[in-house]
């Protein structure tokens, strides 16, 4: 399977719950979901659920969060298995980044995505075949 891009959790959180000062980010996140060949991993969906139901200022209900996950089920989603964990651990050590960020990179690579949209990693950084792009960066 090969996809165009991989979305970090924060992109989905902005799409579902970005309001007020985050309205521009919400619109940009929705634009990515609607116009790009996107993918993510089970890790991203897990983090999304926890973030939107517990960690943001104005949370979503569990039912609303699950509705979002149901809609996102239409896109490719990589399961996390032992092989992915090992690859992520190697990436973490090689690039001296957190395991969780490395797991995103490993999943993006496994899906064939060459772009990882995230505002948490270094914009423009190349990790093997995966390049990080901050979709909210203002030039």
Relevant terms:
139 residues; alpha/beta; Rossmann fold; six-stranded mixed sheet; 6 strands
Succession of helices and strands: EHHEHHEHHEEE
Helical content (DSSP H or I, runs of 4+): 40-55%
What is the CATH class designation?
Answer: Alpha Beta
* Unreliable stretches: none
Q: Which sheet architecture does the biggest sheet show? A: 6 strands, mixed
**Structural Rg:** 14 Å
Number of domains: 1
Structural class: alpha/beta
CATH superfamily: 5'-nuclease
Shape: globular
Cα separation of the termini: 33 Å
Q: Kindly state the mean pLDDT as a whole number?
A: 96
Q: CATH topology, which one?
A: Rossmann fold
Beta fraction: 5-15%
Report the CATH architecture: 3-Layer(aba) Sandwich
Count every beta strand, where a strand is a DSSP E run of 2 or more residues.
6
How many helices? The count is 6
Could you give the order of strands across the largest sheet?
A: 3-2-1-4-6-5
Q: Quaternary arrangement of the chains shown?
A: single chain
Description:
By secondary structure, the chain is α/β, with parallel strands linked by helices. It has a single domain, classed as 5'-nuclease (Rossmann fold). 53% of the residues lie in helices and 13% in strands. The protein has a 6-stranded mixed beta sheet with strand order 3-2-1-4-6-5. A hairpin with a 2-residue loop joins β5 and β6 (130-133). α3 runs antiparallel to α4 (62-72). It is globular and about 40 Å long. The model has no long low-confidence stretch (mean pLDDT 96).
